[in-house]
Design a protein that fits this description.
Elements (H helix, E strand, L loop, with lengths): L1 E5 L2 E6 L2 H20 L5 E5 L5 H10 L8 E5 L1 E3 L10 H13 L3 E3 L8 H15 L3 E5 L21 E5 L2 H9 L12 E5 L1 H5 L3 E6 L5 H9 L17 E6 H4 L7
Parallel strand pairs: 2-11, 3-4, 3-7, 4-6, 7-10, 10-11
Antiparallel strand pairs: 1-2, 5-9, 8-9
Helix pairs in contact: 1-2, 2-3
């Protein structure tokens, strides 16, 4: 594995998806063990994306994580999509991880709740009460974290917002096969803000898609800008970015 540094951000480039997933799972396990040594229960934030497949496989294989003492929050959801629908992040999160590891609790966002202001208030209260110690995120083709598409708000101290999904993100969702057609992909979502995603004491970001090599180069080698939201990771000494070689292929520092 190759270890790189961009400003304050640690970057690890793994030879394979399996090694990427195992390294990130080892990091999560260490953070969780340290936190549970100080408190009887903790909360963490988990994303669900293609890059998490190898990571979730590695997590499911571990026997040293006390999931019964861990509550899970989610990073985003599609507005108007009920939790029970297979397209929802909650359904997919349960299928790929939570039904296997059995956490203490899982609190997904309710994308179909009306009025939406009540859901924003509920999730803000949950987040602040649980005070998560770790956040796992992916990075989108638009450079987004969660659904914070450009231009992202770096200054807000809100925890969760209604956000507009730009066409790059909607196309990415469609190509992932989550919805059958582009027309079915919602135009709005609920998302933790940049502040909420980066507030925990440890942040792990994972990317393995070759088609994201351009945005990875932009966010690491370009300036910090709200037009590439994930570029803010450069200024996060408590964050670590895990890449496989296809995702890192355009980096100047890559061996």
């Amino acid at each position: 594995m190759q270890h790189l540094k961009y400003d304050q951000l640690e970057v690890l480039v793994a030879p394979t998806d399996k090694e990427l997933g195992e390294a990130a799972a080892e990091d999560l396990a260490g953070v969780v063990k340290a936190a549970l040594a100080k408190k009887p229960e903790i909360a963490i934030i988990m994303a669900l994306g293609a890059a998490q497949d190898a990571f979730y496989t590695a997590l499911r294989a571990r026997t040293d994580i006390e999931w019964s003492r861990i509550t899970i929050l989610h990073v985003d959801t599609y507005m108007g999509v009920a939790e029970a629908r297979p397209e929802s992040g909650a359904s997919r999160m349960r299928k790929h991880l939570l039904d296997h590891v059995k956490p203490k609790a899982f609190f997904p966002m309710q994308g179909d709740h009306t009025p939406v202001e009540e859901e924003l208030a509920r999730y803000t209260k949950l987040y602040n009460e649980l005070d998560p110690v770790l956040c796992v995120v992916g990075i989108g083709n638009s450079g987004h974290l969660a659904f914070n598409d450009p231009p992202a708000d770096f200054d807000t101290r809100d925890i969760i917002r209604v956000v507009f999904l730009d066409e790059t993100t909607r196309d990415q969702v469609k190509r992932a096969g989550i919805f059958k057609t582009l027309e079915e992909v919602p135009r709005y979502g609920l998302s933790l803000t940049m502040h909420a995603l980066l507030r925990p004491s440890r942040v792990l970001a994972l990317v393995h898609d070759a088609d994201k090599a351009g945005v990875i180069k932009e966010l690491l080698e370009g300036p910090v800008t709200f037009m590439c939201p994930a570029s803010l990771l450069q200024k996060q000494p408590h964050a670590k970015l895990y890449l496989n070689r296809p995702a890192a292929a355009l980096l100047d520092k890559l061996d």
